[in-house]
């Protein structure tokens, strides 16, 4: 009788252990969906990546962290909550970022200068620049191993129609456009260097430390 | 004398002999290929230190291992019955020798390590803002700024220009000022034999004299967040003339960023942003 009870308890513990293991494995290996760059118009050539940055991702895209700052990517006409992008090797990638967040400022002003883009410049609301005011930075799109550093200025505080939650189409925003050349195949991480995680120590926790919000991978294939 | 004691002494002598023979072989064969190589005076010093440590540890290790193997063979349980081994009594000579030898080894290494650390101006490690010993002669100051998750470098004698990669001139004494602007990091330039804590609001001074024209790996050696494993870069040691050309190119290239950088300081403590608490 005692033996049967012990066997039952042992089996229950084993099943529970397996379930916990599966849960942990699923959590540890989960990652955002991948968004591939699409072919750019023939006039410009290369491939196009369209991104959006928002101050709060909202419950639609992230029920667990609706107030976290985040990037989104456009796929088939819809905004996807993803920071993993696929782009072709040895090609030109044109990036458009619709920036809906306010400014925060860079901890290291060095990153206010554009680097590694075609012409070493960025077009912000139609104006070509090689650097921005570091205090006006809202985010950055930086791929250190490719030498691509692009600062993204924030929406002025006084602007009307500030976006509350993603998707933010129609709200006040900055349009940032740049192009860069990819190199060899590989998996390169990219990240935001602005401490933009509201509510965390020095703005460096939460979405800055979680794949899928302010950092991700650039799969060069 | 009990026959078992003769066997024990024979085993000890055998272990001792093998240790004496094998130690020089290990030192001369392994010594030259020990890490981190000869990329700088400090790296070469570390190879020497590792060789000395190996020289002192090898006889102890061999003595123990060879005697262990010998004991397994010589004192194995004979077939056909369990026999009591010889009684083991206290051996004052052996105990004294053991205490004296280990004490001498440990104290020698402590003194050697301390002398080498200071004679080598910190031996490639950070010595804090006020190092006890400073090399004489001209030094090129270079600041290493760590942040989540990248190192950048400032050259205060070249207008305070900041660069995303570290380039150093061969044969010149470099005075690295390692700091962080957010969390704790560690600046590890492997082939140069440099490993120094990068802490916020701390100026950690490291001296290094590159002696070889080569590329070197830079890594963060302190778990510092999600992208810690990606906080790496490749630096270069170049000739002084190539360095001169490179640094002037950097001054020109990063002129817009240099204009907005804070005045050079040994540490920076950026104001909390409106997002940070």
Explained architecture:
The complex is a heterodimer of chains A (221) and B (277). Chain A is of the alpha+beta class. The termini of chain A are far apart. In chain A, strand 8 and strand 9 (127-129) form a beta hairpin. Chain A has helices at 2-29, 58-61, and strands spanning 34-36, 38-39, 47-54, 70-75, 78-80, 84-87, 92-99, 122-124, 127-129, 137-143, 148-153, 174-181, 186-191, 215-220. In chain A, the strands form 3 sheets. In chain A, strands 2, 3, 4, 5, 7, 8, 9 and 12 form an 8-stranded mixed beta sheet that branches. A 4-stranded mixed beta sheet of chain A has the order 1-6-14-13, with no helix packed on it. Chain A has one domain (32-216). Chain B has 2 domains: 3-75 and 95-119, no CATH class; 140-260, Cupredoxins -  blue copper proteins (Immunoglobulin-like), CATH 2.60.40. In chain B, helix 1 packs antiparallel against helix 2 (41-74) and helix 2 runs antiparallel to helix 3 (92-119). Helices cover 40% and strands 20% of the residues of chain B. Chain B has 5 helices and 10 strands. The radius of gyration of chain B is 26 Å and the shape is elongated. The chains are: A alpha+beta (221), B alpha+beta (277). The A-B interface holds A 104-105, 107-113, 115, 130-131, 133-134, 142, 144-145, 147, 149, 189, 191, 193-204, 208-211, 215 and B 145, 147-150, 152, 162, 164, 181-183, 225-227, 230, 233, 254, 256-257, 260-262, 270, 272-277.
């Amino acid at each position: 009788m005692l033996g049967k009870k012990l066997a039952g308890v042992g089996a229950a513990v084993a099943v529970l252990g397996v379930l916990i293991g599966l849960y942990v494995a699923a959590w540890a290996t989960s990652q955002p969906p991948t968004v591939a760059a699409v072919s750019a118009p023939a006039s410009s050539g290369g491939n196009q990546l369209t991104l959006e940055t928002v101050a709060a991702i909202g419950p639609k895209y992230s029920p667990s962290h609706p107030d976290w700052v985040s990037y989104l990517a456009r796929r088939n006409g819809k905004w996807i909550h993803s920071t993993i992008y696929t782009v072709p090797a040895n090609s030109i990638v044109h990036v458009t970022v619709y920036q809906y967040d306010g400014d925060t400022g860079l901890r290291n002003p060095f990153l206010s200068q554009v680097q590694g883009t075609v012409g070493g410049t960025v077009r912000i609301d139609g104006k070509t620049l090689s650097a921005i005011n570091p205090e006006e930075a809202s985010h950055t799109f930086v791929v250190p191993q490719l030498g691509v550093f692009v600062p993204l200025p924030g929406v002025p505080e006084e602007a009307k129609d500030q976006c509350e939650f993603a998707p933010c189409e129609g709200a006040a925003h900055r349009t940032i456009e740049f192009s860069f050349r990819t190199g060899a195949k590989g998996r390169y991480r990219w990240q935001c260097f602005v401490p933009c995680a509201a509510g965390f120590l020095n703005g460096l926790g939460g979405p800055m430390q979680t794949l899928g919000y302010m950092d991700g991978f650039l799969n060069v294939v | 004398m009990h026959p078992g004691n003769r066997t024990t002494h024979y085993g000890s002598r055998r272990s001792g002999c093998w240790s004496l023979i094998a130690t020089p072989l290990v030192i001369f064969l392994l010594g030259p290929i020990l890490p981190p190589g000869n990329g700088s005076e400090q790296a070469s010093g570390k190879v020497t230190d590792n060789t000395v440590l190996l020289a002192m540890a090898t006889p102890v290790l061999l003595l123990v291992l060879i005697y262990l193997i010998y004991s397994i063979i010589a004192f194995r349980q004979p077939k056909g019955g369990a026999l009591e081994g010889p009684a083991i009594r206290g051996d004052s000579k052996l105990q004294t020798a053991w205490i004296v030898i280990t004490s001498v080894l440990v104290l020698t290494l402590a003194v050697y390590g301390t002398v080498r650390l200071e004679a080598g101006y910190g031996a490639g490690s950070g010595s804090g803002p006020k190092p006890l010993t400073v090399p004489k002669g001209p030094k090129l100051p270079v600041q290493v700024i760590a942040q989540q998750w990248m190192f950048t470098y400032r050259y205060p004698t070249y207008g305070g220009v900041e660069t995303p990669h570290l380039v150093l001139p061969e044969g010149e004494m470099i005075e690295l000022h390692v700091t962080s602007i957010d969390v704790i990091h560690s600046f590890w330039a492997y082939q140069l034999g440099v490993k120094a804590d990068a802490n916020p609001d701390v100026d950690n001074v490291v001296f290094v004299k590159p002696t070889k024209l080569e590329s070197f790996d830079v890594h963060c050696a302190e778990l510092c967040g999600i992208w810690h494993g990606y906080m790496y870069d490749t630096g270069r040691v170049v000739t002084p003339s190539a360095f001169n050309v490179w640094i002037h190119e950097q001054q020109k290239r990063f002129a817009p960023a240099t204009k907005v950088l804070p005045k050079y300081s040994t540490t920076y403590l950026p104001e909390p942003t409106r997002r940070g608490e």
